[in-house]
Known about the structure:
about 300 residues
Amino acid sequence: MTTPLRFAIGIITYRRDDMFLRLIGELATSATTRLSVVVVDNNPVDQLRASCEHLTESSLVDVDVLWDGENHGVAAGRNLILDKADTDIVVFLDDDARVLDLAAMLSLTASAMADVTVAACAFNIVSQHGEHRRHEIPHADKSVDMTKDFETYLLVGAGHAVRRDTTRELGAYPAEFGLYGVEETDLAFRMINAGFRICYLAGVNVVHERTPGGRMDRKHEAWLLYVNRCKLAVKWFSAPYVASNVMIWSGHYLRETRDLAGLWRGSRAILQSRELRTAPFNATFYKRVKAMNGRIVY
Length: 298
């Protein structure tokens, strides 16, 4: 008899207390089996623990809040959750997300990840108006049919599941990317390069409200996106893909911000990331992405 996969839900929260506590409350009222929730509280004050305990005290949800007064950002925060969780699968949700059907999320993810070659699952993420944002479609082809399951090579931060041991063996989320930016893409690419699969699950519906609280300003967010996309290319890609990514993302940043000083500062950070280049991706990686009609330059 196959042992059921054990799940934990991981949430990083920062300056979105109301949204976060709403999510905890909804998980508590929806859980029909024992469920572990691991929270990294990036706020400067330990102010959420008591509310979490109150919301879950009569439920099947066990909440473990990790707080030390530091803002660990996204990648390092997720790695703390991976270290703390004692489960097979960790589902990561943004603190301003809502799960429409918790039982469906757990059962569909368990079914997909019963196949040991599946290292991660991407979810069907929509806005509070029911629309798919382009950057939250886990494929470069934004016309892909989101009502059907498909195999992909991307994950979206607002809602996805990973196999915990596999993720840690592959190096987990890249903490060198700082507070924010394409950490789940870096992990997804490493999964594909290692021969694992990623499944998009149309039936796992997550509403992501993307509230402004707790978010950095758009210019700094654009800078981190530019730098980290280029760092990712420098770490893993062959020379032609490194060059094309640097050109495209440098141009994108300049068009968005007109910030020449930021471009220069970013180029220095990208050059320094050459020391991270240890084992570039193999030819199979590019073939697998191409077979999924994907692309790594966009």
